[in-house]
What does this fold into?
Amino acid sequence: AQSVTQLDSHVSVSEGTPVLLRCNYSSSYSPSLFWYVQHPNKGLQLLLKYTSAATLVKGINGFEAEFKKSETSFHLTKPSAHMSDAAEYFCVVRTSGTYKYIFGTGTRLKVLA
Amino acid sequence: SAVISQKPSRDICQRGTSLTIQCQVDSQVTMMFWYRQQPGQSLTLIATANQGSEATYESGFVIDKFPISRPNLTFSTLTVSNMSPEDSSIYLCSVDVGLAGRYNEQFFGPGTRLTVL
It folds into this structure.
């Protein structure tokens, strides 16, 4: 079965330092992968998506992710954290065949002043 | 893209009652999904609802508890039946849309915040 695993439930960084949120996927096929962000009491916002074009995907608000097939990873990065980045981040896979979207357990990012 | 509305946006219900949540999309879509997001948790897929067929439920979810209707390509309902406090969650509908470049993307409704007393 296709799935994603978010390796960290909580990540804390200082403002201005790099962000790394880790996601590994499990898929027999070339997956479609997504990162979403959810700010407190807000809806889901798509940050970026991988759909087998470029392996380095650039998203909104300075975020990017690199698809690494050899490592089955799709980690989310940002060079410099901002206070407004504090939120919950979800890695999502769109399954082949059934075309369902399966969410990871989420990573809560805390940005320290 | 797709714009999705949900009704109600929130409700407070008594245990043992049922609530029907409506999901309206501004364009015709084949695949719709219903998710539950319990407090502080990720999204859990309840079922996939395709027009013209029975909904497909994920492990741990059953039709008697979460009956779903999908009468046409722009509308769906989810009923939470015989509610208990454990059903207190945000319920979201979403759709799968094919975009230019032959890739698909998911769009979400704003969610229905349900509190069961």
In short: Chain B touches chain A at residues 31, 33, 35, 41-45, 48, 56, 92, 94, 96, 101, 103-106, 108, 110-111 (CB under 8 Å).
